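To whoever is on call:

I kicked off a structure prediction for a single chain this morning and the downstream step that reads the tokens threw a length-mismatch warning. I double-checked the sequence; it's 156 residues and nothing unusual in it as far as I can see. Pasting both halves so you can look.
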Amino acid sequence: MIKLEIPGKGLYLVENVILDFNGTIAKDGRIHNKVKDRISLLGKKVKVYILTADTRGDVEEKVKRLPVQVVKLENGDEAVQKLNFLKQIGPEKTIAVGNGYNDHLMLKEALLGIAVIGPEGACKEAILHADVVVTDPLLALDFILKPLRHKATLRR
């Protein structure tokens, strides 16, 4: 569990983190080793879910040693599928990280939504519905893992 303290808003207990795969934590279908290291650290504190349409068909292989649960989406209306999964595990105790149009609904409804503008870019809806915007998946994961960053960025 991670304590997320937002001055002026309150203290929240985070139990889950949802990560989008392609374009968010993976670039061209590959996860950088430093990103894998941060996901391993995160997995010691919370449940980590990777939601993906698995476009390349190899996500299980790419994350096989990581403490994550892969949730594969069906083709069509992935944004609603991601939102429905978020609702199942509890938006009030979940941080969501994504970059695409199919992430915008979960970014809006999660306790904390983090949009990543990486090498593949980010959809404007994802950016507009996020609470925090970063330029790299490492920054997103460090934002979650380092509580003083919450306070500085989210202070009301």
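Update from on-call: the warning came from a stale cache, not from the record. Cleared it. Sanity check on the structure: The first strand starts at residue 2 and ends at 6.
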